[in-house]
Amino acid sequence: GNSVTQMEGPVTLSEEAFLTINCTYTATGYPSLFWYVQYPGEGLQLLLKATKADDKGSNKGFEATYRKETTSFHLEKGSVQVSDSAVYFCALSALNTGGFKTIFGAGTRLFVKA
Amino acid sequence: EPEVTQTPSHQVTQMGQEVILRCVPISNHLYFYWYRQILGQKVEFLVSFYNNEISEKSEIFDDQFSVERPDGSNFTLKIRSTKLEDSAMYFCASSPFYTNRGRGETQYFGPGTRLLVL
To answer: Which residues pair with B53 in a beta bridge?
Structure first.
């Protein structure tokens, strides 16, 4: 079945460091890929998405490229800020027998130190 | 920008009691979902709903759970007899009609209801 695997956290970085959070997926058909962010005590916010191979999603300095050949969707940001501290979830949405559902990875907690 | 709303934001209940969690999906969306997140764990799919019936449900969604769209705007999740292990954050989500030729659709999530069963 469909699944998402992302790197375990927590990830601790200093402000202005480069961020990579790895994500790989297994899916049948043509999934769309997403990164969601969850700030402390809040709900899930869509950060970015890509709907087909080689698409690059980007938002707020974050970006991720849909790589079908490596089944990956790694999240990157060139210079993190303290305000980026949150849990990041990689996810996919694919059509199955019952319609669409989103499959989430386990989440990666990011701490950014000033 | 339209958004999914959920009420209440927090609910505390006694084990064995019934709870109803309410959601108002985005108005022109046709697909509705419930997910849950036990504290510190991953977000898990519970159920999807389309055209006034359940499309798919997970193993978690047993006979204690039910969903309903009682009117044109609300989408509810009922837990008939709550257990301690039902304590979690429950997220509602909605998505529009298939526009992407079978590719995965973006689901828009509400802020969640934190349920605590004592």
So the answer is: B50
- Cα gap A13→A10, rounded to integer Å: 10
Asked whether the beta carbons of B41 and B34 are under 8 A apart, the reply is no
Q: Cβ contacts (< 8 Å) between B41 and chain A: which residues?
A: 106
- Residue B28's pLDDT band, with cuts at 50, 70 and 90, is confident
Residue A58: CB atoms within 10 Å: 14
β-strand A62-65 against A75-77: which pairing, if any? antiparallel
> How far apart (Å, rounded) are the C-alpha atoms in residues B32 and B113?
16
Q: What type of residue sits at position B52?
A: N
Size of interface A-B (CB pairs under 8 A): 83
Question: Which B residues, 72 through 91, put their C-beta within 8 Å of a C-beta on chain A?
Answer: 89, 91
Higher local confidence (pLDDT), B1 or A64: A64
Residue A41 binned pLDDT confidence (cut-offs 50, 70, 90): confident
Looking at residue B91, its pLDDT comes to 96
